Automatic annotation (TrEMBL), chain A:
<dbReference type="Pfam" id="PF12704">
    <property type="entry name" value="MacB_PCD"/>
</dbReference>
<keyword id="KW-1133">Transmembrane helix</keyword>
<keyword id="KW-1003">Cell membrane</keyword>
<dbReference type="InterPro" id="IPR050250">
    <property type="entry name" value="Macrolide_Exporter_MacB"/>
</dbReference>
<feature type="transmembrane region" description="Helical">
    <location>
        <begin position="30"/>
        <end position="54"/>
    </location>
</feature>
<feature type="transmembrane region" description="Helical">
    <location>
        <begin position="283"/>
        <end position="308"/>
    </location>
</feature>
<feature type="transmembrane region" description="Helical">
    <location>
        <begin position="328"/>
        <end position="355"/>
    </location>
</feature>
<keyword id="KW-0812">Transmembrane</keyword>
<dbReference type="GO" id="GO:0022857">
    <property type="term" value="F:transmembrane transporter activity"/>
</dbReference>
TrEMBL record, chain B:
<dbReference type="GO" id="GO:0005886">
    <property type="term" value="C:plasma membrane"/>
</dbReference>
<keyword id="KW-0813">Transport</keyword>
<dbReference type="InterPro" id="IPR015854">
    <property type="entry name" value="ABC_transpr_LolD-like"/>
</dbReference>
<dbReference type="GO" id="GO:0016887">
    <property type="term" value="F:ATP hydrolysis activity"/>
</dbReference>
<dbReference type="InterPro" id="IPR027417">
    <property type="entry name" value="P-loop_NTPase"/>
</dbReference>
<dbReference type="InterPro" id="IPR003593">
    <property type="entry name" value="AAA+_ATPase"/>
</dbReference>
<dbReference type="GO" id="GO:0022857">
    <property type="term" value="F:transmembrane transporter activity"/>
</dbReference>
<dbReference type="Pfam" id="PF00005">
    <property type="entry name" value="ABC_tran"/>
</dbReference>
<dbReference type="InterPro" id="IPR017911">
    <property type="entry name" value="MacB-like_ATP-bd"/>
</dbReference>
Length: 413, 255
């Protein structure tokens, strides 16, 4: 048994040694043939790695609107039950406490008039609770997102968008810039954060304000039928138990609100959509990668076939000195496999450098990504694995050809 | 000990038009350890085919051929390759060194196919062998930078590095001048004598053939002893010269 193991180990090592020697001797040719594979692997790995960043960017973009998985939104139809926002908020809080839900936020829209230097302008306000920032991955470019204590401020805290901030002269937040808010009375708001523009078309001022700060300010003229503040109630729950929790919370919320109250609940995050919303991107990435790899394999196969033809005499000589057909087969196969493995490592290294470069990050929207994914290990493994697979496939035909060489003819070749 | 024993061995190949062509027929030959055998014959007489059969590179289509007592037709392909690697050393007319490799790497090549210690100690063994053939100073030189005689010495070192029991030399001096040829033959014989290996030489050169103690003539695919029955001369020169003259006469007749 030990003897067999030793012989096998020696056989494997000697085959690899022979392959490495062949690679060294034919390094010029090998280098040329492997450049194609290295570039293909680099492209493949870059596409997969960059795809992960692009996917994360897309995911985070979706999460900014719909919330992280699983975000459940609820709308309240109060009927004959609790009618005012405070009563509904109390019922909501009780329901959340009973279910042990840590992240929840009311989310609604309202309008407050803001006194700018060039006049008073109605500004769209997104009315939320502090947890909304985490639940929707709200990015803040200056200052910080709301904290729980912000609700107790006498001067309401505002997190304004870039257009708002520029309109007041982009002041340093360290100076606690303020604006006059006109609603049900007039109060001074303090700007505590600035969010970057979501797109170049976001030119109108807008701001986030905490629900507890907004409710006392909302104009009393609001007609329930004419767009009065009517928030949705959002909670962030574990993905696996979202459906179950939705039902349970809905029933409990209705019960808290009293007779006649109705609650609608649905998942608003992207993951609730039917199928994988990123599937088209993924398929496109895989398609491109496969085409790239096939081209690399084709180039390698051509060169390997030509090379074996040019080495028939050498193969014959080796056979005359005791190389078995199997040994020649694995030796030729191993040459391409070892070569493509090295090319794969080089390609993956280049891809990592490329994907992690700031330029690529910007191009993929990586600058907007909060949780920048590390270079995906699976991309590196796929790259090297694909390189080895290509080497094995491209080496198969030449290896079979090498085995079919007749020793006598080969020596005379 | 008998290394190779051929009884009525023949080799027939099929021509492209489907007709059979008999290259060898009814060959009887026994080669034992320490033998010095020379085979002469015209081009196309089947010398190389016979050498390929003796070296397990080819199999006969008729007759019986035994290598170390084993019928070669019963030995599997892989086992035959391994047997060839360990027991047979080839020296070719055109040296057949692997281009791009140094002398040392060329001599190491057969050791890549041997298991165990020989593989792990291949560099040392190859170095010793090259020193033995007088090329200790040219270890890292590539074949294209060596003279013909030096190239053949590398080829000899490579053929003998695994200490084969049978050395098959196909026109080993064919590409060398007379003096270098004689030196190379002396070297092969000396190294073979050290290990007790048998040496079978195919040659056109009567003086090279005369160095053997058994002489054969291959004519029209048939092997004939050039050591006349019951009249085997101690040096063999006369018979080999006769055989060569016989070939020349036939060549002239054909012309």
């Amino acid at each position: 048994m030990t003897g067999w193991l030793t012989r096998t180990a020696t056989g494997v090592v000697s085959t690899i040694v022979e392959a490495l020697e062949e690679l060294r001797i034919h390094r010029g040719r090998v280098l040329l043939s492997l450049i194609g594979v290295a570039v293909a692997v680099c492209a493949l790995t870059t596409v997969v790695g960059a795809g992960a960043i692009a996917e994360q960017a897309g995911r985070e973009m979706s999460e900014r609107f719909g919330g992280r998985p699983a975000t459940v939104s609820m709308n309240v139809g109060t009927g004959s039950g609790a009618t005012d926002n405070e009563a509904v908020a109390a019922a909501w809080q009780t329901t959340l406490d009973r279910h042990g839900i840590d992240y929840a936020s009311r989310s609604g829209y309202g309008t407050l008039t803001v006194q700018f230097v060039d006049g008073a302008v109605p500004v769209a306000m997104q009315v939320v609770d502090p947890d909304y920032g985490v639940m929707h991955r709200v990015r803040v470019m200056e200052g910080a997102w709301f904290t729980d204590g912000d609700g107790d401020r006498l001067a309401p805290a505002l997190i304004v968008n870039e257009a708002f901030w520029e309109r007041i002269g982009s002041p340093s937040l360290a100076t606690h810039p303020t604006v006059e808010l006109v609603g049900n009375g007039q109060v001074t708001g303090v700007i505590t954060g600035v969010t970057p523009a979501q797109s170049e078309w976001e030119t109108e001022p807008a701001a986030f304000i905490l629900t507890d700060s907004f409710l006392p300010l909302q104009p009393e003229t609001a007609d329930p039928m004419m767009g009065a503040y009517a928030p949705s109630y959002e909670m962030w729950v574990p993905d696996g138990s979202a459906d179950e929790l939705t039902e349970s919370v809905k029933r409990a919320f209705e019960s808290e609100l009293g007779d006649g109250a109705t609650v609608d609940g649905w998942r608003s995050d992207y993951a609730a959509q039917e199928g994988d919303p990123f599937l088209p991107i993924k398929l496109m990435i895989v398609g491109v990668a496969v085409v790239i790899l096939l081209l690399g394999a084709l180039g390698l196969l051509t060169i390997a076939l030509v090379t074996v033809r040019g080495r028939i005499r050498e193969i014959g000589i080796r056979r005359s000195f005791g190389a078995t057909a199997g040994r020649v087969f694995f030796s030729v196969l191993m040459e391409t496999v070892v070569g493509t493995f090295v090319a794969g490592v080089v390609g993956v290294g280049a891809a990592i450098a490329l994907v992690r470069s700031p330029l690529m990050g910007m191009a993929l929207g990586g600058a907007e990504v909060q949780d920048m994914p590390g270079f995906p290990v699976e991309a590196a493994l796929i790259g090297i694995g694909a390189a080895v697979a290509v080497g094995a496939l491209a080496g198969l035909l030449p290896a079979l050809g090498a085995v079919r060489v007749k020793v006598i003819d080969a020596i005379r070749f | 000990m008998t290394l190779v024993e051929a009884r009525g061995v023949g080799r027939t190949v099929e021509l492209p038009d489907g007709r059979p062509l008999t290259i060898l027929s009814g060959v009887d030959l026994t080669v034992s350890e320490g033998d010095r055998v020379s085979i002469v014959g015209r081009s196309g007489s089947g010398k190389s085919t016979l050498l390929n059969l003796l070296g397990l590179l080819d199999a006969p289509t008729e007759g019986e051929l035994a290598f170390l007592g084993h019928d070669v037709r019963r030995i599997g392909s892989g086992a035959r390759d391994r047997l060839r690697g360990s027991e047979v050393g080839f020296v070719f007319q055109q040296f057949n060194l692997l281009p791009g490799r140094t002398a040392l790497e060329n001599v190491q090549t057969p050791l890549l196919y041997s298991g165990g210690r020989e593989f792990w100690r291949r560099e040392r063994i190859a170095r010793d062998m090259l020193e033995r053939v007088g090329l200790g100073e040219r270890l890292t030189t590539k074949p294209e930078r060596l003279s013909g005689g030096e190239q053949q010495r590398v080829a000899i070192a490579r053929a003998l590095v695994r200490k084969p029991r049978l050395i098959l030399a196909d026109e080993p001096t064919g590409a060398l001048d007379l003096e270098t040829g004689a030196e190379v033959m002396a070297l092969i014989e000396a190294v073979a004598a050290e290990t007790g290996a048998a040496l079978v030489t195919i040659t056109h050169d009567p003086t090279i053939a005369a160095r053997s103690n058994r002489h054969f003539l291959l004519r029209d695919g048939r092997l004939e002893s050039a050591d006349a029955a019951g009249d085997v001369q101690s040096d063999g020169n006369a018979n080999v010269a006769d055989a060569d003259a016989d070939i020349d006469a036939q060549v002239e007749a054909v012309a």
